[in-house]
Amino acid sequence: MTWGRGFFRAWVFLAAVWLAGSVAFFGPKVEDAWQNVVPDVPAGFVPDIPVDCNLTRGSVSTAQESGDYEPHDGKCWYDLARFRRLYPE
C-alpha cells in the first residue's frame, strides 16, 4: 500500500464521517424549518391572477354588475375559475 492510496482512503472515510455528522446535527433543524415554511391559508381562499389590462378578455366589474375581472393598480385581476375559462391556453 502506498502513501497516496492510504491518504485517499482516509480522506474518503473522514468525508463520509463529516457528512453523516452534518446530517445528524443539522437534519432535525432543517426539517423543522422546512415544516414552518407553509403559510396558514384560510379555508376557501382562491387566489386572484393578474393580467396586463391591455391583454384582457371578458367584461370589467362595475359597482352595478359583476364582470370577469377587476382593475386595480394597473393590472386586471381575475379569479381562478374565470381566468381558466377565458384563457384556456
Describe this structure in words.
- The protein has helices at 3-35, 80-86; strands spanning 48-52, 69-72, 75-79.
- By secondary structure, it is of the alpha+beta class.
- It has two domains: 1-38; 48-86, no CATH class.
- A hairpin with a 2-residue loop joins β2 (69-72) and β3.
- The N and C termini lie far apart (66 Å).
- The mean pLDDT is 81.
Keywords for this structure?
single chain; 89 residues; alpha+beta; 2 domains; 3-stranded antiparallel β-sheet; 2 helices; 3 strands; 45% helix
Helix content: 40-55%
N-to-C order of helices and strands: HEEEH
Structural class: alpha+beta
Percent of residues in beta strands: 15-25%
- The mean pLDDT is 81
Tally the helices: what do you get?
A: 2
Strand order of the largest sheet: 1-3-2
Largest sheet: 3 strands, antiparallel
Q: Roughly how many Å is the radius of gyration?
A: 28 Å
**Number of β-strand runs:** 3
Q: Outline, from the CA principal axes?
A: elongated
Summarize the structure.
The chain is an alpha+beta fold.
Write the layout of secondary structure elements.
Elements: H1 3-35, E1 48-52, E2 69-72, E3 75-79, H2 80-86
